[in-house]
Amino acid sequence: MFLADLLVVFAVTAVVVFLFGRAQIPSVIGLLVSGVVVGPYGLSLVDDIESVELLAEIGVVVLLFSVGLEFSMSRLQSMLPLMLKIGLPQIVGTTLLAAASTWWYFGTLPQAVFAGLLVAMSSTAIVLKLLADRSETGTPPGRVAIAVLLLQDLLVLVAMLAVPLLAAAAGVAADAQPARSHAAGHAEPLFTNPLAAGGVGLAVVAAVLVAGRRLIPQVLHAVVRLRNRELFLITLVLIGLGTAAITAKVGLSLALGAFLAGLALSESEYGHQAFVEVLPFRDTLASLFFVSVGMLLDISFVVSHLGLVGLIVVAILVSKLLATTIPALVAGFPLRTAILAGGTIAQVGEFSFVLGSRGAEVGLLTADDYQAFLAVAVMTMAATPVVTGLLASLCGRLSQSQRLGRLFREPPPPVGAQLHDHVVIAGFGINGRNLATALTEFGVPHVILELNPETVRRERATGLDIRYGDCTRAAILEHAGIEQARAYVVAISDPASARRSVRVARDLAPDVQILVRTEYLAEVDELRLLGADVVVPAEFETALSIFERVLGIYDVPEETIDDLVDDLRLENYGFLRGRGRRVALRSDGTPDLLDQIGSCRIPAGGVVEGHSIGALGIRAATGVTIIAVRRNGQLIRNPGPDVVLQAGDELSFVGSREERAAATAMLVVTLTA
User: Fold this and answer.
1) CA 99 to CA 108: how far, in whole Å?
2) If you write DSSP's letter for every residue of 353-375 in order, what string do you get?
3) Considering only CA atoms, which of 144, 147, 84, 150 is closest in space to residue 338?
4) What pLDDT does residue 583 have?
5) Coil, strand, or helix at residue 655?
6) What does the DSSP 8-state code read for residue 85?
7) 598 three-class SS
């Protein structure tokens, strides 16, 4: 029963990955080991292996689809020089080096070239998961590795067409028991003529990219307007799997088709939300791919040929490391970047399984050769996390060396490559729009998240960086650069979504300043507990605005008003929310902010005449704070301690009833009294 087999796979995988996690071993290795345990060469816990592999193939499709969603055409175009300068020499160099090394064993050059093609391909699935887990997709080594992987996927058609040609040139016979195909999902191409197949393949790629700019955004816009999440997800699945099926039918790989579909979607305003929707499926189904790869490994064969397998694994890792490092150095990359990129793609790829299967079918590989290839390929995949970790540690140590430190230091990130020190705004209503306008006026970078498709489409046309996305989803906030942002402003009208968004944002970015606008008084305390730094209730801000204007009528200095309003906000509008008389906000003697303002006139012959405010110690003696002095029609705002009082001065001050009474009694006393 397939469901029972799937349950066994996930149960064993969960236990193994958990144990490996406790031992701080990368999860990819745990997934491969899980496949060995449940596979036919392990405990044989799974009967319906073909169904598991089918799900694994879908997982690879979803993985590449999500990768395409994270890219854009401009980013792909920027990688074209890397593909030509590093990717092409890497593929050609690895193929030639492997062919020269195995020619003596196979006896014919075509078989040796085929072995070189098997080794040249790297694992897109392994590398992308590894880079994503370590948040290194955007680093220089990550960009180099991805550029090489993309070129390898683009050359899939050439490699597939070369298999029968190489078999014919080698004069070998087909194997009576063809090897089981695996993991990259190739249908038999419609065209066997290389020129026809190549032309059709290029036409399909161009059609997908054109549809991504013209047709797909229109379709998604119509779907999104219905506000039906299920329909949106179904449409994404149709686009991703449909494009992958079309490319596979014309001889290209499923992986390439899925990547092109994601790339086409990334050009629309719904790309970020699409990425969030496919993320759970990617993580689950892609895990099955690694498990299914582990199922191929025959442990008994590895044990009986341990020396040979180990030697080949080391040879492949070293040769592929050099085949990437040398072109990267020639292209001008630092030594550290070149080494880390080479180590990242030093394994044998999943597409090589398909090539190996086809090669065994046409006689380019014997049954033992194919099993040896499977063992080597799986072990290079399992070694990738360890190798990359060791290389990063080695480069880190060498960067501290006095002699070699300059060569191995990490280069500074490119300026403008990523959002940094910006503001993320959730919601583009009145408040979000006004804030965005103000930030634009002052040149502050910002990103806007909005769920109204009409608004997103209209504002994007004006050049505004506004994205369709749900601010309660972690991946959407990550795409908006929440971890590098200085502030996150939640200006949406849905209280439940605002609470979820604040909680997610605080988990992702502990240091970001979170400001929330809310309509409801009851939300203030809860939002603060969830991580909001500032909560602005609309009704209380209206009250404060009136409060500021009324105090202005009484000629209270602007600085004083600002201090009073800031204190009210700092205490979360505590006085406005209370029913009784508020207590003083400060413990340093500052008077109650909302007490009545007192005033008095200095009489002629008064005892305070000719003395400065500081010398009189009025605040210490009475507790009031003098906020203004009106003299001969001129207003002295917020007078300092050196201001000398004169007869006829009218003083304004704030304090409690008792404090005002004491101040008045002190200031109006005359010498004749």
Assistant:
1) 10
2) HHHHHHHHHHTSS-HHHHHHHHH
3) 144
4) 40
5) coil
6) I
7) strand
Give every CB contact of residue 416 below 8 A, 6+ residues apart in sequence: none
Partnered with residue 630 across adjacent β-strands are 635, 650
Closest C-alpha among 370, 367, 372 to residue 175 = 367
Q: Of the candidates 631, 594, 595, which has an alpha carbon nearest to the alpha carbon of residue 613?
A: 631
Phi-psi region of 555 (alpha: psi -120 to 50; beta: other; left: phi over 0): left
pLDDT at residue number 590: 41
- Interval 244-266 mean pLDDT: 76
Q: What are phi and psi of 450, to 5 degrees?
A: -150, 145
pLDDT at 357: 73
Residue bearing the bigger pLDDT, 116 or 409: 116
pTM of the model: 0.57
Select the more confidently predicted residue: 397 or 579.
Answer: 397
DSSP class of residue 173 equals P
Answer yes or no: are the C-beta atoms of 3 and 48 closer than 8 Å.
Answer: no
Query: How is residue 653 annotated by DSSP?
Result: E
- The answer to whether the CB of 595 falls within 8 A of the CB of 556 is no
Residue 192: burial class (beta carbons within 10 Å; 0-12, 13-18, 19+)? exposed
Q: How far apart are CA 585 and CA 430, in angstroms?
A: 32
Q: How many other C-beta atoms can be found within 10 angstroms of the C-beta atom of residue 246?
A: 17
Q: What are phi and psi of 384, to 5 degrees?
A: -60, -50
CATH of 423-532, one of 3.40.50.300, 3.20.20.140, 3.40.50.2300, 3.40.50.720: 3.40.50.720
Q: What is the mean pLDDT of the chain?
A: 78
Signed CA dihedral, 638, 644, 649, 652: sign only: positive
Instruction: Please tell me which residue, 483 or 199, carries the higher pLDDT value.
Output: 483
Residue 562: its pLDDT value, please? 67
Cα distance between residue 19 and residue 59, in whole Å: 24
Helices (H) and strands (E) in the chain, counts: 31, 10
**Averaged over 124-149, what is the pLDDT?**
80
pLDDT tens per residue, range 179-238: 444 444 445 555 555 566 667 767 777 787 777 777 877 888 888 888 787 888 888 888
CATH architecture group of domain 597-667: 2-Layer Sandwich (3.30)
Task: Flag whether pLDDT at 581 surpasses 60.
Answer: no
Task: Look at the chain and count its residues.
Answer: 673
CA dihedral 588, 589, 595, 596 (to 10 degrees): -130
Strand order in the sheet with 423-426: 466-468, 446-450, 423-426, 487-490, 513-518, 534-537
Which position has the token pair 């492997």?
98
The answer on pLDDT for 588 being more than 50 is no
Q: Which tokens belong to 249?
A: 């039918």
Note the CATH architecture for domain 59-398: Up-down Bundle (1.20)
Mean pLDDT, residues 526-541 taken together: 78
The Cα–Cα gap between 144 and 152 comes to 13
Structure-token match 């990103």, residue found: 447
Contact of 116 with 95, CB cutoff 8 Å? yes
Q: What DSSP assignment string belongs to 62-82?
A: HHHHHHHHH--HHHHHHHHHH
Which pLDDT does position 177 carry in this prediction? 43
For residue 86, the 8-state DSSP code is: I
Instruction: Tell me which of 212-221, 345-354, 559-568 is least confident.
Output: 559-568
What residue has token string 């301690």?
641
